[in-house]
Amino acid sequence: MNNDELTFRGGKNMALLPMFLFIVSCSLFFSVFHVFDMIALAMCAFLAIMVGAIFSRNASDYWKAVVREGIGSEMAVTIATILLIIGMYAKMIAQSGVADSFALLANQLGLHGGAFTVFTFVSVCIVATATGTSIGTLFTAFPVFYPSGILLGADPIVLASAILCGAIFGDNIAPISDTTVASASTQSYQYRPGSAEIAGVVAARFRFAIVSALIASTLFYIFGSNPSPLAEANIHQDHEATYKSLWMLVPMAVLLIVAMKTRNIFKAIPSGILTGIIVGLLFGIFNVTDIFALESGNVSGFLYKGFHEMVSTILFVLSLFGIIGILRASKTMDRVSSAICRSRLAQSSQGAEWCIAIGSIIATALVGGVTSASILAFGPVASEIGSRKSLHPYRRAVLVDCFAMTLAAIIPFLSAFIFIVSAIIVSLQKNYPFIQTVNPIHLSLTAFYPIALFIVMSFSVIVGWGRRFEDKGGLQSRVAPE
User: Fold this and answer.
1) pTM of the model
2) Cα–Cα nearest to 450, from 379, 373, 365, 377
3) Which of 59, 167, 299, 477 is deepest in the core (most CB within 10 A)?
4) Which of 179-199 are b and which e, b meaning 16 or more Cβ less than 10 Å from the residue's Cβ?
5) pLDDT in tens, 422-475
């Protein structure tokens, strides 16, 4: 495809038609028909793409954009690959019964309801910070914390949100997170070569993340209890077998250690799977046929089931990236960013920060809540806006990253985070019949960390908390240079 932007009959705004149709179809499925089916959503996305092609002036370039800049992009393929591998790991953890073990252990420690929800949020924050991957953390944490938390009286919706928020928190501050790397690398210095250092960016945003996490923890404690908890009889009574399943926390620890040592999720997850299989066989948690088996022409075992159950999620992810490819090739995000940069609001330091905040939120919404993609797309524009007012690269990186992690990351019918969480919960229902389907709207409304982060960051912009300027030597200064 050439470098010219995609054009449409009816004007430039027609590039938004596929995204608009997709959001409408998702709204109908969730709110009107009360149906959650990832394959159906993927179908709707492709139908929306096909409708958009009708209005494209060059159908060939249009479909090349869908495939090359969307479905076939490095980010889309990477996410799909991670999902396939981690699906097997998640199924292994779920089938091992470690959730029942965790429920029994937490029950003896007296962690119930809101207390368990807070415990889960903090634990997932630590896991996500260690691994630097929000999606990987979701698939790692849900099989462990979600079923056991419900058994211990946690509100299912708030508990799911706590796990989601913990994953977002880790993605927000982890030095090895792709969003941290993207936000730092896109913010250039004015007066010396190079871009913002990752360590400095992490240190600059830590205060905002911690305050937001404390607010979220308080809300999780208040609203995290289920008024009608499941009877404790639901916890397996075979305590010996239940405690034995705690050995499956070993592969989780191996996964975390390898992730921290190598900073490579593709090395960490297979290490966790291999360790889990060895531990499970050694301690009799499962047998060989539980891992993989062929019987009467049918394939079974958690490796196959975990792989198979991720296919629908991957179809959805790829279809959403197809729409994102259209937005990229049509320069829609570039036009939005340029309009912000030319606005009167961008003419003051505080106004420039608001422009970066608004632009980051809009960019994140346009790419379906995929924060790393939005930061990479909008980061250079934010650098230009902030540089004009001498905002320090650390400050610019904090604004881009933190605001991307707020409201746009949890839009019910658009956020990849929300869809993935919903898909994980659906997959867990097969192992835990007491788990109910969660409404994506309710999930978004109880995502207290992104909401708190938005409030905290808005306060920061209004009062200038943490605002630093770049002096002639590239150092931080409280006063704007003359």
Assistant:
1) 0.74
2) 365
3) 167
4) bbbbbbbbbbbbeeeebbebe
5) 888 988 888 888 888 888 899 999 999 999 999 999 999 999 999 999 888 888
Tell me which range, 64-73, 85-94, 270-279, 447-456, is most confidently predicted by mean pLDDT: 447-456
Please name the amino acid found at residue 296. S
Per mean pLDDT, which range of 90-99, 208-217, 299-308 is the poorest?
90-99
pLDDT for residue 304 is more than 90: yes
Residue 47: partners with Cβ closer than 8 Å, 6 or more residues away? 21, 25
Residue 294 pairs in a beta bridge with: 299
Exposure class string for 53-82: b at 16+ Cβ within 10 A, else e: bebbebeebbbbbbeebbbebebbeebbeb
Closest alpha carbon to 269 in 30, 115, 91, 102: 91
Q: Are 98 and 249 in contact (CB under 8 A)?
A: yes
Judge residue 231's burial from the number of C-beta atoms within 10 Å of its C-beta, 0-12 exposed, 13-18 middle, 19 or more buried. Answer: exposed
Residue labelled with tokens 């993609």 = 373
pLDDT at 391: 92
Backbone φ/ψ region at 97: left (φ over 0), alpha (ψ -120 to 50), beta: left
Q: How far is CA 396 from the centre of its chain?
A: 21
